[in-house]
Amino acid sequence: xxxxxxxxxxxxxxxxxxxxxxxxxxxxxxxxxxxxxxxxxxxxxxxxxxxxxxxxxxxxxxxxxxxxxxxxxxxxxxxxxxxxxxxxxxxxxxxxxxxxxxxxxxxxxxxxxxxxxxxxxxxxxxxxxxxxxxxxxxxxxxxxxxxxxxxxxxxxxxxxxxxxxxxxxxxxxxxxxxxxxxxxxxxxxxxxxxxxxxxxxxxxxxxxxxxxxxxxxxxxxxxxxxxxxxxxxxxxxxxxxxxxxxxxxxxxxxxxxxxxxxxxxxxxxxxxxxxxxxxxxxxxxxxxxxxxxxxxxxxxxxxxxxxxxxxxxxxxxxxxxxxxxxxxxxxxxxxxxxxxxxxxxxxxxxxxxxxxxxxxxxxxxxxxxxxxxxxxxxxxxxxxxxxxxxxxxxxxxxxxxxxxxxxxxxxxxxxxxxxxxxxxxxxxxxxxxxxxxxxxxxxxxxxxxxxxxxxxxxxxxxxxxxxxxxxxxxxxxxxxxxxxxxxxxxxxxxxxxxxxxxxxxxxxxxxxxxxxxxxxxxxxxxxxx
Length: 529
Prior knowledge:
The chain is an alpha+beta fold.
């Protein structure tokens, strides 16, 4: 263990600081496809009974009209976060009729690309902007790739903890700048070590063969309808045979917040020749992408983790980060575990807390070119062959076995888990850590291995397995309806969201072309550093 990590652990273990570790905030966003009884993509509109996808605070859609996204609030106890996520699932199932929520991250057999419905958000300018942005995603990357679902884990540390660390270091920067710099340091360490999460929690080693739609790939045939890689952990996070695009050369700088926002600012304001040739409108004058830049908006950048700040109405993420600094981080690389009704459980959340605190407290020098490349290569190697016996990764320019490095990391993370248990009582974090150590010792315990074992044991294709799990989870949620008070709250929230969308549509006076022009012009107020 590094001297710096030991020092920070000792500091937080002091009696007057220990309670700070129980004040971290957690939030979860879970995506899942609506499907019919046979597992085919639902072609129906977003259910009106669920409210407005544009304005509902808990239930929205991501890329497709059929791709639901559930959003919890933030809680200091992830038990409450998961309880809220559970309630959202139960409410949704009460309104789905004969439709279902697809259990895994990878979709089953999808319709032809033109038939995959893009999410719609009504006739307001902001609703139309969200729709056109998604049209741009279809144009740039295809619709199939946008139908993959995942879990996003949002995490923040209390401001008092940052203040304690800053006072200990004698750092003279503003509290906002110190906090942002430490969140960026967390992100650097996450890039170094996130391959471990892919090994432990990756749950997409196989997919429906139709997903590749005839594109070349390196996947193997498990059966007539299933493609896989024998040692893969998360094909969802691999390249899946996609060719390079404008994002291939986009690697935002994580030295500090200013350089990060500057690199993203450049991407959202620099034209990309291939997109420029397509234009923002088609031959009939209909919008097909918001602009022809490398990124249409900041959120188009596909990263495993993002620095975040709650934005005001109409405020761009880059403006919010520059003005008020980083508020929390969003982990975006987590697969949905198809064996779990919520796709995630408390044990995983407890380990994620310890892992993210380790990334926060461990020394985090800036990533030099070689280390940045090695981190990317380690991540991709683990998602494609993480369970391969004897697999070696690169650390400090030298080869090291995955098992050895994982063991060392888990030992250090174990000190964090122990401190969290001291802060909160019980042994929940130590138990979560022990479960991960068992996976490193025996790869057959990982979700990815369990998926493949289940397919082989039952003689099921990926989609048959996924549909069976989908029906099991539907029964789980439908057998335990929400209490009346909770149903009433969700019903009222749905109606309020519909009224809010209608009001937004009635209040719009600016034509859409001018609205998009103003939106693009807002970037000019963000002067690159």
